[in-house]
Specification:
By secondary structure, this protein is an alpha/beta fold. It folds into three domains: 45 residues; 186 residues, Molybdenum Cofactor Biosythetic Enzyme, Chain A, CATH 3.40.980; 71 residues, Alpha-Beta Plaits (2-Layer Sandwich), CATH 3.30.70. Helix content is 41%, strand content 17%.
Length: 336
């Protein structure tokens, strides 16, 4: 990079006619601008290759906030992260609003290693995710020809558009091409910022600022693309085998208030090992659940007898496996 900048500086210092009218300040500004652009490009590329420890998820759509659509993508992503040992730190649902998308994208990209967005990349006027995230990182939108070619190959005209022609300008064509207008960083190779992870899908994963992955809101597509990214993610995990987080469950007949003191001391004990303690009341059942979640499987397994005694319960493989048919004598703890 410094070699390129030195060459540029020497070039600008030559007494060429087209630079004769420029002030020294203008020349310095040009060098500074190119240096900043190069540094930003390198930073974004580095961000895409760094280890993944944390994740964030942005669900974008007025229809989710208005109750018209039920979001299932965040739950799927949460399970995906858990299965790989990625610490999902935040899930946000925001409106189809440019300012909100810009703010959330910048903040999430800064705070977490791996960020996905869901929704807002369709052909209609309210699908503004691409343009908003491009604005967030001062990037242009460009028609991505490879995406257009894949779209032509794999998409089929809707039955309401029997005369649609890719070679004839029309409102429908303009709308379709909106889905191929992608944020583009000129300093990053195309293959690093536009991913195709499923051979039979034209939908790209647009990668912005090195760690934001823009995905569709349609659950079937979202899930397929998330799974398709797994081979790219595994080498960047603490455990490249992707064994994921480990959860140990204990069933206890005690109310949460009865085990609160013990769980407080247990949490303090296991926190240095990266293990979290959770307690979950099961209303209408006579047994509650206590969990340990972490990566250190050997350490967590070694605590089985201690925790079972502490909560006067037993370790179980899944919630409710030791429930009985007779739930009439349920002790309801009002502070649970």
């Amino acid at each position: 990079m410094y070699s390129r900048l030195s060459q540029l500086a020497r070039h600008l210092s030559r007494p060429l006619p087209n630079y004769a009218h420029r002030s020294a300040a203008a020349v310095n500004a040009s060098v500074s601008s190119i240096m900043t652009s190069s540094l930003n490009g390198e930073a974004r590329a580095t961000s895409q290759k760094r280890m993944i420890h944390t994740a964030g998820c942005i669900i974008i759509g007025d229809e989710v906030l208005g109750g018209k659509t039920v979001d299932t993508n965040s739950a799927y992503f949460a399970k995906f992260c858990f299965s790989l040992g990625i610490n999902l730190k935040r899930i946000e649902v925001i409106a189809d609003d440019e300012d909100e998308i810009v703010e959330a994208a910048r903040r999430m990209s800064k705070n977490y290693d791996f960020v996905v967005t869901s929704g807002g990349i369709g052909p209609t006027h309210d699908d503004i995710t691409y343009q908003s995230i491009a604005k967030a990182f001062d990037l242009p939108l460009q028609l991505h020809e490879i995406t257009v070619a894949k779209m032509k190959k794999f998409s089929r005209p809707h039955k309401s558009q029997p005369t649609f022609d890719w070679n004839v300008p029309s409102p429908a064509l303009t709308a379709k091409l909106r889905m191929a207008q992608l944020p583009t960083d000129p300093n990053i190779p195309d293959e690093e910022q536009v991913l195709y992870v499923k051979e039979d899908l034209w939908v790209p994963i647009s990668v912005v600022n090195g760690n934001i992955h823009i995905l569709p809101g349609v659950p079937r597509l979202f899930e397929a693309l998330i799974e398709g990214m797994k081979p790219r993610i595994l080498p960047r995990l603490k455990d490249p085998e992707g064994r994921g987080m480990y959860r140990v469950l204990f069933s206890t007949p005690l109310a949460e208030s009865a085990v609160a003191e013990y769980l407080t001391s247990l949490a303090a004990k296991v926190e240095p090992k990266g293990v979290k303690v959770g307690s979950y009341p099961r209303w209408g059942k006579n047994r509650n659940i206590v969990t340990l979640v972490g990566n250190d499987r050997e350490f967590m397994d070694s605590l089985e007898a201690e925790v079972a005694q502490g909560v006067q319960g037993v370790r179980v493989q899944k919630e409710g496996e030791d429930d009985t048919d007779d739930e009439t004598d349920v002790k309801k703890d009002k502070d649970a």
